[in-house]
Write a structure and sequence with these properties.
Layout: H1 21-29, H2 34-58, E1 65-70, E2 73-77, H3 86-98, H4 101-112, H5 126-141, H6 144-157, E3 161-162, E4 167-168, E5 182-184, H7 191-201, H8 205-221, E6 231-234, E7 241-245, H9 257-274, H10 277-293, H11 316-333, H12 336-352, H13 383-397, H14 399-406
Antiparallel strand pairs: 1-2, 3-4, 5-6, 6-7
Helix pairs in contact: 2-3, 2-12, 2-13, 3-4, 3-5, 3-13, 4-5, 5-6, 5-7, 6-7, 7-8, 9-10, 9-11, 10-11, 11-12, 11-13, 12-13, 13-14
């Protein structure tokens, strides 16, 4: 049945009607036929065109970095917080899709504002900040300052490496003992900046640290069923594991859907950079678990194991992030069900989560949840959802364009 013809089982509030895991898994495994593929392509092209039109209308008035919406309008950070790279990243993707030079001009100006963060040793998020902005700027313009700045950001990031535990510390300044042993799944997405730095400099230490961190995460986060916690704590002195925890998930034993998506994409990427088959196996286990928890509307619930799941609020950002990882998995494993699942997720978000009915909205994707336990950003718009929606769609419509921006090659 075509995604566009299927009746999506959602309530007025957007929560999925409860179904059994076996029903969900069967729906995810079904193969898309030619008519479905054509319908999906139309849906995704319309969504990309909508996202680009939204950026064309909103971006000229944006002078800082969007962090999330309040009553459908962007709130901003002046220094980029952890999400600053996604705004210039969106603009680069819009330029590639449309050819509109305005987007290139705005992307360069936005990326430039991140320059002071090259030397920030107080966060693990330098990959999020500099890969979609500065690495992409270098790949698309060839101007060396962007490459050099991204390498400097990687040099700042590896200062957070704990050799005793073989992990990159997530939060807090290097002199602050609080959270000194805290590792989060999100960091998997920052490792590609280190792979980039090793490739550019010829210095293996960057990639070596990325591999060590990924192996530590693989060993400690992955549960037998393929689910993961958001956080894992270690003794910062000895490096000994303490146990799972959470900040944005429901509990240490639950499975925060966006963290699971970061893991799918992150482990797939570190496999592409290293050829290590264990990383690919881990990515598949995470993906298979997440897909088994999807309901027929194909939009992830915010935490797969929260008590009200699957009848709970959604996080469309988890869906589009995972879709990008699934498209990678399909290429690497030659298992078409991963691509079909990615297409269903992207189509579902494009049909049920865009802001097309609001004249007020400044973002493209709605129904995202930032941090439910903190009651912070419940079903709002988030800049990384807009970014990964475009990335995922362009991977389908014209993979070469995304490859130009973020390098989809493998060793």
């Amino acid at each position: 049945m075509s995604v566009t013809r299927r009746t999506l089982l959602t309530t007025a509030a957007g929560a999925a009607v409860a179904v059994s895991a076996s029903t969900s898994t069967a729906a995810s495994a079904a193969t898309l036929d030619a008519a479905d593929q054509a319908s999906v392509t139309r849906t995704l092209r319309q969504a990309a065109d909508y996202a680009v039109a939204k950026l064309r209308a909103v971006a000229p008035g944006v002078t800082a970095f969007p962090t999330g919406t309040k009553f459908e309008k962007w709130a901003y950070s002046q220094n980029g917080d952890w999400v600053g790279g996604f705004w210039p990243g969106q603009l680069w993707l819009a330029w590639l899709h449309s050819g509109d030079e305005q987007f290139k001009t705005l992307a360069l100006a936005s990326a430039e504002k991140l320059a002071p963060r090259q030397n920030d040793t107080g966060t693990h998020d330098l990959g999020f900040l500099f890969y979609p902005s500065w690495v992409t700027a270098w790949r698309l313009t060839g101007e060396d300052k962007w490459r050099a700045g991204a390498v400097q950001a990687a040099a700042s990031l590896i200062k957070r490496y704990n050799p005793a535990g073989k992990f990159i510390r997530a939060w807090g300044s290097l002199t602050d003992p609080k959270d000194a042993g805290r590792v989060i799944m999100d960091t998997m997405m920052n490792l590609d900046l280190l792979a980039f730095a090793s490739k550019q400099t010829g210095d293996p230490q960057y990639l070596d640290i990325a591999i060590a961190h990924a192996k530590t995460a693989q060993k400690n986060f992955l549960r037998p069923d393929g689910s993961t916690p958001h956080v894992f704590d270690f003794d910062p002195v000895t490096g000994a594991p303490i146990g799972p925890n959470t900040v944005q998930g429901y509990s240490p034993t639950s499975c925060w859907s966006r963290g699971q998506a970061w893991g799918v994409y992150g482990f797939t990427t570190i496999h592409r950079r290293t050829g290590d088959e264990e990383f690919l196996t881990t990515a598949r286990r995470l993906a298979d678990y997440a897909l088994s928890k999807l309901t027929p509307d194909h939009v992830p619930v915010w935490d797969y194991l929260a008590p009200q799941a699957p009848n709970d609020i959604k996080d469309a950002s988890a869906g589009v992030i995972m879709a990008c990882g699934l498209l990678d998995l399909a290429e690497l494993t030659h298992h078409t069900q991963y691509r079909d699942s990615a297409l269903r997720i992207l189509s579902a978000v494009s049909q049920t989560c865009l802001t097309t009915k609001s004249a007020r909205a400044e973002a493209s994707v709605a129904r995202c949840t930032r941090n439910r336990p903190a009651e912070d950003g419940i079903e709002v718009s988030l800049p990384y959802a807009d970014y990964y929606l475009l990335e995922g769609i362009l991977r389908v419509l014209d993979r070469r364009k995304v490859d130009r921006a973020v390098d989809l090659s493998s060793v």
